[in-house]
Amino acid sequence: MAVQVFRFDSPDRFVVGTVGEPGDRTFFLQAREDRRLASVVLEKEQVSVLAERVDAMLDEIVQRTEGQTEIPVVEDVSEEDLDPLEQPIVEEFRVGTLTLAWEGDTQRVVITAYAAGEPGTEDEEPPDDPEESTRDVFLVKLTAAEARSFARRAQAVVAAGRPPCPFCGLALEAEGHICPRANGYRRQG
Description:
Layout: E1 5-8, E2 13-19, E3 26-33, E4 36-42, H1 44-64, E5 91-103, E6 108-115, E7 137-142, H2 144-159
Helix pairs in contact: 1-2
């Protein structure tokens, strides 16, 4: 099967969303440009790390350019996208590797997701040019403002999962929770 590249150089929408109930959610990156719509599946941890790294990268660019680059320090909440994922949600592939870059000449954040490889190939370095990948690719270019908005929504989606236990901080399970701090174990003083 031929490698597919889902490329969105100027998406109308790029979001993280989920399908399912907390504790059993599937996380998606979804992009739409005109009539093209693509969705890829990734892990909750990948979403969390991606959101943190997008914000950190933008903060570093502001610092390095001493504010000369037009990057909002915080996302404009009037532009916040709270809509659900668009239908139909068709999984193009499961993400294995994510890369993040800054295109200085266009002032765009580039998020590239590569399909998970065969077992034993997870450590393969992604190519410099995504078009030369041996795995399917999902590539999105965002303005700094769009990237801030994406990161804010991604952080909110991750946080909207199962509530934490007030004693240990672990996520509460729907079928019950055995808390290591409240299960009768007492330290001897």
